[in-house]
Design goal:
This protein is α/β, with parallel strands linked by helices. It contains 5 helices and 5 strands. Helix content is 35%, strand content 16%. The chain has a 5-stranded mixed sheet, covered by helices on one side. The longest helix is centred in the first third of the chain and has 15 residues. It starts with a helix and ends in a 6-residue tail after the last helix.
Length: 162
């Protein structure tokens, strides 16, 4: 019995430690390398929320309702915040996926997510107008983390609403 309790306690403790594979390759304040021209057509003060997703990711699929809420938020003041999606699939497949699920995107990039410093999907990156990382969220978010994303977005876009 003690061995079983000890094993369960150890597994519980280890499951609470951050997964080193989910750490980003970039730090807050560092620029995220989006493809050439990704920021040339926008005002320098416009923040960007980057969604790094995959059509084959179960956590991405489970997070679709939250991304739909984000689309409502973005559409409330579309010129005040940009959404970009980075996925490894072909651009046509990405656009079809986004349209099917009602996920907003001002820019769609077909490239490995590792090229922007992301190790896994889903990952959200909030960037300032110069594409420098303000904040990030990795994995399927719980309700507290979703609220944190919305609160962060409301700070950078007070005109936006849910």
């Amino acid at each position: 019995c003690l061995l079983l309790i000890g094993t369960l306690a150890r597994n519980y403790y280890l499951s609470r430690l951050p997964d080193p594979n989910t750490k980003l390759d970039i730090e807050k304040g560092e620029p995220v390398k989006l493809p050439e021209g990704a920021s040339a057509d926008r005002q320098s003060a416009t923040p960007t929320l980057v969604l790094a997703l995959s059509t084959h990711c179960d956590f991405c699929q489970a997070s679709v309702p939250f991304y739909q809420k984000l689309a409502v938020f973005k559409n409330s003041a579309p010129e005040r915040v940009r959404f970009a999606t980075v996925m490894a699939e072909p651009k046509e497949e990405i656009e079809a996926y986004l349209k099917k699920h009602g996920i907003a995107a001002d820019a769609v990039f077909s490239m490995p997510v590792s090229q922007i410093g992301v190790k896994g999907t889903p990952t959200l990156l909030l960037l300032d107008g110069q594409n420098k990382l303000i904040d990030s969220w990795v994995g399927q978010l719980n309700s507290r983390e979703e609220s944190e994303v919305i609160a962060r977005l409301q700070k950078v876009c007070p005109e936006c609403s849910m």
